Amino acid sequence: MRKIIELKNVSKAFDGQTVLDNVSLDIYDNEFLTLLGPSGCGKTTTLRIIAGFESPDSGSLSFLGEDILSLPPHRRNVNTVFQRYALFPHLNVFENIAFPLREKKVPQDEIRGKVDEMLRLVALTGFEKRSVTSLSGGQQQRVAIARALISRPKVLLLDEPLAALDLKLRKDMQQELKNIQKATGITFVFVTHDQEEALSMSDTVVVMSEGRIQQIGTPIDIYNEPRNAFVADFIGESNILSGIMLQDRLVRFSGRDFPCVDEGFARNEPVDVVIRPEDVVIVPKGQLRGTVTSVTFLGVHYEIIVDIGGFKWMIQTTGFADVGDEIGIYVDPENIHIMKKSEYSGLFGDYSSFSNEFDELSDAESEAEP
Ligand SMILES: Nc1ncnc2c1ncn2[C@@H]1O[C@H](COP(=O)(O)OP(=O)(O)O)[C@@H](O)[C@H]1O
Ligand SMILES: [Mg+2]
Fold first, then answer.
1. According to CATH, where is 3.40.50.300 located in the chain?
2. Is the dihedral of CA 322, 323, 325, 326 positive or negative?
3. Quick one: which atom of ligand 1 is closest to the CA of 35?
4. Could you tell me the distance, in angstroms and rounded to a whole number, from the CA of residue 27 to the centre of ligand 2?
């Protein structure tokens, strides 16, 4: 695969506040790459630096091997789709999409052909005469994408383009965007704070927190092999326990020794242990025992919170347990994942403050609790 964009040691501060801290990232030809992280972690700033709307305080940015930091946005071979689509309300669908070509004084029949092609690509054939203000949010976003793609940039930057759409439409658009990316072969750099969206759409996911890249990998890598407690917590649900790696393939946590499959840690090295809720099996006896404190039916499975020695585990199971039941749990060695200690150790992975409210809401509430 050919490397298109390379950010190297890029840092940026606003008003003395570091927003990007030594970010290095390679972006490849034909790749669907997603920057994923909570609000404020520096995703938009990264995109704006690539697009040329912002310049880094230090570090380099190259495009096909050439330094492009001194190039203005319109001289870079990239285009941006924003969350607010910024269509021209007085122009119809055709003219909105044709706009970049009109600016470049492209001849009329060439414009016609290219707009038709874009309309087909975003499934809006027949809509060319419609006023953009009469379109649904999803249709407007497709017009914005067609307009951004019509001049065939090498790279399309998309900053939370689906955030304003309702859930059902967002799911449809995710699939459609993915199809458009495959059909055109244009590299997409997509920004979202939604981990499910990132996992379902991307070839490569870049997890960011506080201006730093935490992990780069395929969705499966990121999910199965999170590099630290931040990534494990942010991507899906995780029980994260503090443990000690006694020796290769043997870890101690919750007062017990567990066989696992990880190797290469120092003897007795303190580590973080991640166990996904769907990997915990309820059994009569079990490696550990605890008391069920909450049960929620979620359609495909139950989400059960179990208090094991004061640490609250989340378990997802199709079996049923009742609040107050004492149960045993078993975890397969392959499903015990060991991580190095990090600055995020101890911050995540205990479901004591868990509620079925929105995650962010319960986070905010638990911080306020004594
Ligand atoms: N032009 C700016 N001036 C001052 N602060 C900014 C500016 N742009 C972004 N920031 C700050 O930088 C941080 C990262 O912002 P941003 O890159 O937009 O994050 P994200 O897109 O991940 O939500 C935030 O704290 C934001 O308030
Ligand atoms: Mg943003």
1. 3-223
2. positive
3. 22
4. 19
Could you tell me if the CB of 211 is within 6 A of ligand 1? no
Q: How many residues does the chain have?
A: 370
How far, in Å, is the centroid of ligand 2 from the Cα of 43?
Answer: 6
Give 162 Cα–ligand 2 centroid separation in angstroms.
12
Give CATH for domain 225-368.
2.40.50.140
Contacts of 107 (CB under 8 A, 6+ apart): none
> Which tens digit of pLDDT belongs to each residue from 173-203?
899 899 999 999 999 999 999 999 999 999 9
283 within 8 A of 289, measured Cβ to Cβ: no
CATH 2.40.50.140 intervals, the chain: 225-368
Q: Global pTM? A: 0.89
Residue-wise pLDDT for 30-67, tens only, equals 999 999 999 999 999 999 999 999 999 999 999 999 99
Please give the CATH topology (third level) of the domain spanning 3-223: Rossmann fold (3.40.50)
